[in-house]
Amino acid sequence: MADEESDTDENMTEHDDNDSDYEEEKPVKSKRIKRSNGKWKLYYENKQFKKEWLELFPWVEEDHNDPKFAKCTACNKKIKAHKGILETHQKTKRHLKNLSGSDDIEDDEEQQQQQPKKEVKSEPRMNTAHAMPNMMGEDQFSFFTESPIDAAHQAVTTLIDKLVEKYHENRLENLKVQNDAMLQLNQERANLLREENQRKLELSMQKDEHNKEVLETHMKYLAQQHEIKINAMEDERDAKLKAVEQQLVFARQEYEKKVKLLDQQLQYIK
């Protein structure tokens, strides 16, 4: 009986210690992870190899089987076709070692293998089963303990979302401004076309009036010339008629003289 009482006392003391530990534990902060909208996924998927990289990176070749990848001739390795990734790759020790052909440069993986592993002190985990309840709700969001990396990732994601939203807002404003400018430009162009057509119409009317005046002047001149010609023809006809009349008068006089002469001769013969 004494042993049983001592065991129960020990269990009670252990249970009391655990209770005190649970009471001393602070509530663990929880963080909601938002599902990624994939805004930058298309940016990396649509990246393709560019011919200008051949001059910028002499050690790179185009992967003809997949234009989204490039090939390092020094490392014989496929790399994602992205300028930043290529710049990062050319600074690695393995690439520099393969490119120079010297063994003085140690590889990153070999250096990591040679470095002694640091002993990680295992800290006693807190039993958060009692401290943090099941936070899975109807929205099916997962919650876990907050860490600096997660906080930084969340801050960067929020900043990117805000920048993208601001970019779209600015783009909409720019599109509105461009649309208003295009409408104003089209209106001004229509006004200019209307004024130009009006000016052309006025010029054509003035030209028609001028041509009409020139035509009237020419018609008057032709009428005068025609009248002069008619008068000249009439004068010429009158002159010819007078000449014919004079010839007839002269011929009659000659005829009368000859008749008188014949009469005289006939009388003389008788």
Automatic annotation (TrEMBL):
Residues 1-33, 99-125 are annotated as: Disordered. The lineage of its organism: Eukaryota, Metazoa, Ecdysozoa, Arthropoda, Chelicerata. The keyword Coiled coil applies. Residues 175-261 form a coiled coil. Keywords: Coiled coil. This is BED-type domain-containing protein. It comes from the Eukaryota. Residues 1-24 have a biased composition (Acidic residues).
